[in-house]
Amino acid sequence: MGSGYNRKQSRTLAGPFVRARAKARLVEAESQQVMLEIGLHPELSKTQKKFIAHDYVMSGGKVQIAVRRAPLYYALRPLGPDTEPSARPPEDQKIASLNAAEVGG
Questions:
Q1: CA distance 55 to 8
Q2: pTM here?
Q3: Sign, Cα dihedral of 63, 66, 72, 74
Q4: What is the DSSP letter of 94?
Q5: β-bridge pairing 62-68 and 95-97
Q6: pLDDT per residue over 51-95, tens digit each?
């Protein structure tokens, strides 16, 4: 009783410090940049590949884009990271992510 240690008070004092440290780690992780590699759909015709590569300023049929980790999902969503490019017709998906699994998508 007279030990002077109050468990509830200890949690109250440590709480803001722990939350601030956790928030700082989260902000750091979210602001980290990853390099997303985009490539052409393998079934596009030669002419289509030429025009799409020009539109996306691709070199060798691929391009790298720096993306913050936090909105990475939104960058990957139109690329269909959970499906193989060959599973969708080239008219539906002209470009595909080449390294979605590596960057955490």
A1: 61
A2: 0.60
A3: negative
A4: S
A5: unpaired
A6: 999 998 999 989 998 888 777 778 777 776 566 777 778 878 888
